[in-house]
Amino acid sequence: MDREHGASAALWGLGNLPLLARAGSKESLEYILQALWRTRRTGLDAADRAVARDALQLASDAELDPLLVCLRILIRRCVSENVSKDDIPKLFPDEVPPELQKLLTLLLQKFQPEWQEDASKDRASAQHSCTAEHQLNQNGDTSEQPAAPDAEHQNSTASVEDSIKSGEKEVKKFPLAKDSLDKMLKDLFSTKDHMPIALN
User: Fold this and answer.
1) Is the per-residue pLDDT at 133 higher than 90?
2) Which residues of 165-175 are buried (b: 16+ CB within 10 A; e: fewer)?
3) CA angle 86, 87, 90 (to 5 degrees)
4) Which residue in 3, 33, 101, 114 is deepest, having the highest Cβ count within 10 Å?
5) Is it the case that residue 185 has pLDDT exceeding 80?
6) How far is residue 17's CA from residue 83's CA, in Å, rounded to a whole number?
7) Which intervals of the chain are annotated as region Disordered (predicted)?
8) Does residue 50 contact residue 42 with C-beta atoms inside 8 Å?
9) Dihedral sign of CA atoms 11, 14, 16, 21 in order
10) How many CB atoms are closer than 10 A to CB 35?
11) Residue 109 lies in a domain
């Protein structure tokens, strides 16, 4: 029994939860619990930490952090372990004063259904994204790869491209002056005019 009590004390940290009695109001405790739930993936930001420190009249984060860990454990137990509302008071260590136990119990009972619903949505979302990722991976593995062009087609394409390039080089080697081109066109049309017309 002593060993169990020692383990519980080590888990909760002596004197952490009773610090909540310093809160000036029920609303302050509500805010802290809701902020912890809201930031369950990211952790409290500086503004929320400052509000919690002020509400609990704590001088530093060193005093606040162990308390936040205890509260997160409480919240996690209420949500994940599906603790019945009647069993919530049994989660508190003996060091927590009865009035504070009663207030925390009321707040945890109040938020438990909402938090459990959020947790259920989180699990469904995680499962959906995991399934979608798995399907993407499977599709990536079995998707048809474009067929590689056969060697003959590649060779013919390459030879056409080579001849075009070499033709371009030859044209570049022998540039025509504009008046030379005009003269060639005139000669071509004048030759056409002198050709005899075939009679049917």
Assistant:
1) no
2) eeeeeeeeeee
3) 130
4) 33
5) no
6) 19
7) 136-176
8) no
9) positive
10) 19
11) yes
Q: Quick one: which of 182, 41, 26 has its CA closest to 100?
A: 26
Which structure tokens are listed for 62? Answer: 């060193």
* Residue 186 is assigned to a structural domain of this protein: no
Which structural domain, as residue segments, surrounds residue 76? Answer: 8-121
Tokens of 136: 């993407």
Give the whole-angstrom CA distance, residue 111 versus residue 133. 32
Q: Is residue 138 part of a domain?
A: no
Question: Token pair for residue 176?
Answer: 């025509």
**What is the rounded distance in angstroms from the CA atom of residue 162 to the CA atom of residue 179?**
31
Neighbours of 68 (CB within 10 A): 20
Residue 174 lies in a domain: no
Q: What is the DSSP string of the chain?
A: -HHHHHHHHHHH-TTSGGGGGG-S-HHHHHHHHHHHHHTTTT---HHHHHHHHHHHT-S-HHHHHHHHHHHHHHHHHHHHS---GGGGGGGS-TTS-HHHHHHHHHHHHHHHHHHHHHHHHHHHHHHHHHHHHHHHHHHHHHSPPPPPPPHHHHHHHHHHHHHHHHHHHHHHHSPPPHHHHHHHHHHHHHHHHHSPPPP-
pTM assigned to the model:
0.59
